[in-house]
Amino acid sequence: MTGTLVLAGTPIGEIADAPPRLAAELAAADVIAAEDTRRLRRLTQALQVQPAGRVVSYFEGNESARTPELVEALAGGARVLLVTDAGMPSVSDPGYRLVAAAVERDIPVTAVPGPSAVLTALAVSGLPVDRFCFEGFLPRKAGERLGRLREVADERRTLVYFEAPHRLDATLAAMAEAFGADRRAAVCRELTKTYEEVRRGPLAELAAWAAEGVRGEITIVVEGAPERAAPALDAAELARRVAVREEAGERRKEAIAVVAQEAGLPKREVFDAVVAAKNAP
Fold this sequence. Notes:
Number of strands: 10
Largest sheet: 5 strands, parallel
Structural class: alpha/beta
Order of helices and strands: EHEHEHEHEHEHEHEEHEHHH
Radius of gyration: 27 Å
Helix content: 40-55%
Low-confidence stretches: none
Mean pLDDT: 94
């Protein structure tokens, strides 16, 4: 009988934000895999929990080596709890390898939902939240960073990034170059903590502000690219498109309706273009 892997979200700042189930899982787990065992100790003390299970470290440096050990514990029936320093494991934090390995072995994986810097920053940014994508950390090298940003310069969805404070000014400057100086953004610093700050404005303005030096945990939210107007089609092109559809077997009425919808024009305008083309010498 296999065990269960539990991914537990931990507070990103305010300890009172810890989900109610977190304390119960910390107390009941057979194995606790922690990104930083010292931080885990501070967390359990704050929650007044005494873990009964074995505590092991699980961080970027030993993730590959420790994953097989934890999978074997799961296969043997253990309940393994994975916690990182803050937020949800595997989201720009250790955890993905263990989840993938557990899924490969048909071991159940569940989660204790908790605070998320991604969603918190998105919610307070003041930017559109209906569609977004999380890009994690950008490359450290300037050329690679700029290249990665240019890849998503036309992305319509709101973009969310993590960044180290000492690279913030360079990253914002690169964003201004790749996305445009006037693209709106929000820099969210120390979310839910004592010195929480959300700075909103155009990318160029934010880059100038960051050049003075910024401290703390940083999440950047950037407005998606504006919709680009489709190029206007002249009468000859409208008539050509209708003719192509007619040659493919569509009736003229249907072809005119489709072309009008694609061009964002009234059907009468497309019809007139077809008639004009037919009557042209």
